[in-house]
Amino acid sequence: MADTAGVKRTGRRLEHPQAGEIRVDAVLHALADPIRLRIVRELSDGHDDMACIAFALPVSKSTSTHHFRVLREAGIIRQYYEGTSRMSRLRTEDLEVRMPGLLGAVLNAARIAEGDDTAAGTEPVPAVGGR
Amino acid sequence: MADTAGVKRTGRRLEHPQAGEIRVDAVLHALADPIRLRIVRELSDGHDDMACIAFALPVSKSTSTHHFRVLREAGIIRQYYEGTSRMSRLRTEDLEVRMPGLLGAVLNAARIAEGDDTAAGTEPVPAVGGR
DNA sequence: ATCGTATTACGATGATTGTCAAACTACGAT
DNA sequence: ATCGTAGTTTGACAATCATCGTAATACGAT
C-alpha cells in the first residue's frame, strides 16, 4: 500500500503520519503559528501544489524548512519531491475524516480576523463561508 | 461597559479580552495543550460553571492557575469569583462570532481521537456529533 | 564533471512554555 | 481574631520552540 506509483521518485524520503495517526494536539499546535497558518492559507487559496520557495515567507530558508516539517509531521500537508523542488499539498480529506470541519473553521476564522485590520469588530461579522 | 451587574463582586479583578479582540493564534495555542483541552472539554460537557478545583487536574495548583489564565486571556473562558472559588464558563457565543464552528470542531475531533485508544482507526470513524 | 538551484542538516541562541514549591492574599466559618 | 479553603504570585527549572547562519546534499542543466 501507498506505493507512490506515478510519482517521480527522487531518492529522498519524507515521513508522513497515517490518517489515523493524526493528533489533535499536534494539528492545533501546528496551526497556532502565524507563519504556518499563512502557509496553510495559501495552500487552500487555490494553489494546491506549491514549492516551498513559492511562498516568499519572511523567514530564512532553514526556518521555512522547519515550518513545513512541523506541518507535515502533524499530518496537515503531504509533501513530495519534484526535481529539486519539494511540493506541498493540504491533506484535506484525511483531516476531514479525523477532524471534520476543523480546517475549514480555522481558515474561516483567519479570514474573519483579517478583516479586523480595516473594519475593527464594530459590525456583527459578515459570516464568511456560510452554509 | 461590562458592569458585571448581579455578579457578587469580591474585590478581585480578572482581565478578559473583548469578543472582537480574540485572536485565532491565541485560541489555537491555548487549545493545543492537553490539560487545557481537557478543561474545555469538561466545561462543554454539561457543567457550564465550575470552580477550578472541581476539575481534579493532574497538576499542581499553580500550574492549574496558569492554564486557566491562558484560556481566559485567549478569550476561551470567562471567569468570575464566587466566594473563594473562581468559576469558569465557556465563551461559546463570543467564540462563535469570531470563529464559527471552530470550538465545536475541536471538541468533536477530540472525541473522535479518544475513540482511538480502543478502536484504533480501522473503521471510517462514526462521525460523532452529527448535524 | 561542474555549476546552480532548492532544500536539508547541524549546531547555536534567545524566547516561550509547562511545571513545581513556597509564601502570600481573599473569603467564609468558627 | 483565628483558622481552613481556594486561588495567586513569585521565582526557579528543564524542555520546547522559532530563528538564524553555515555546511552539506540531491537534482537538473551545461
TrEMBL record, chains A, B:
InterPro entries in alphabetical order: ArsR-like_HTH, HTH_ArsR_DNA-bd_dom, HTH_MetalResp_TranReg, WH-like_DNA-bd_sf, WH_DNA-bd_sf
Top-level taxon: Bacteria
Keyword Cytoplasm: no
Residues in HTH arsR-type domain copies: 16-114
Keyword Transcription regulation: yes
Keyword annotations of the record: DNA-binding, Transcription, Transcription regulation
PANTHER family: TRANSCRIPTIONAL REGULATOR, ARSR FAMILY, TRANSCRIPTIONAL REGULATORY PROTEIN
Protein name as it appears in the record: Metalloregulator ArsR/SmtB family transcription factor
